[in-house]
C-alpha cells in the first residue's frame, strides 16, 4: 500500500505575463443612434403606425370616394373636430362609464364564483356547469332578452357586459388557482390559513398572471360587446355612447365621422392595454419575478 502520509509532489510555478487591455480588441461595441432607437419598443410601434397611416392615405386617395373610404387626413379632421366640440368626448365617456359598471360587476361575480369553486366541490361543479353552458353563448345573442327585461338603456348594456366579463375572468382565475403548486398550498395550510384568508394571501398572489390574463380578455370582450350593443340600443335619455355616435354618423352619411368614432374606440383600447394593464403588470407580476 502507498504511504498515505507521504507529502504531495511539488508542482512547478506558473508565471503569466500581464497583457495590455488594448490587445483584447472591442469587448463591447457602442450602439449607434439608430440601434438605440430600434431597441425601444414604443419607437418601433410608432413607426409602424405611421406606415399604416401612409398606406391608409394612399389607398383612400387612389380610391377617391369619401362615402366608401375617407382619407386619413379627413378622418383626423373629423376626430379633432369631434374632440374640440366635446361631442365625441361625451360619447366616449358615456361608453367608458357604462363599461366600468359592467366590468366591475362581472369581476365581482367572477370572484364570488371562483372562491366558491376553489373552496368546495359543489362550487367547482357549479362553475364548470355554468361556464360550459354560458361561455359559448355570444353576448349579442342576449340582446333581445336584455331589451325585454331591462328596457332600452344602460341596464341592458350592463347585463350583456356582465355576461362578456364573467366567464372569461372566472375560467382564467380558476385555472390559475388550480395551477398553484402544492408546496405553496401546504405553506398556507401550515400557517393556519383557510377560507378567504387562504385565497387572498396564497392563491391570488400565486395565480395573479392567470388572473391578469383573464382581466385582459374580459376587458376586450366587454369593450367589443359594448360598442356592438350601442349600435343596436345604445341611446338612453337622448344620449348614447361611441357605438351610437357611429350609427348616427352612418345615417347622416358622414363617413369620416364614422371612421373617427372607430378611431376613438381603437385609441381607448390602446390606452387600456398599453398603459393601464402594462402598469399593473409592471408593479405586480414583473416586480415579483413571475414574468420577464
Any descriptors?
single chain, 292 residues, mainly alpha, two-stranded antiparallel ribbon, 12 helices, 73% helix
Structural overview:
This protein has a domain at 87-286: MetI-like (MetI-like fold), CATH 1.10.3720. The mean pLDDT is 82. Helix 10 packs antiparallel against helix 12. It has a two-stranded antiparallel sheet with strand order 1-2. It has twelve helices and two strands, in the order ααααααααααββαα. A hairpin with a 2-residue loop joins strand 1 (235-236) and strand 2. It has 292 residues and is mainly α. Helix content is 73%, strand content 1%.
Quick gist of this model?
Helix content is 73%, strand content 1%. It has 292 residues and is mostly helical. It has a domain at 87-286: MetI-like (MetI-like fold, Orthogonal Bundle), CATH 1.10.3720.10.
Topology (SSEs and partners):
Elements: H1 33-38, H2 41-63, H3 72-85, H4 87-119, H5 121-134, H6 143-150, H7 154-178, H8 182-190, H9 195-206, H10 208-233, E1 235-236, E2 239-240, H11 242-251, H12 255-286
Antiparallel strand pairs: 1-2
How many H/I helical runs?
A: 12
Largest sheet: 2 strands, antiparallel
Strand content: under 5%
Return the structural class.
mainly alpha
The chain-level mean pLDDT equals 82
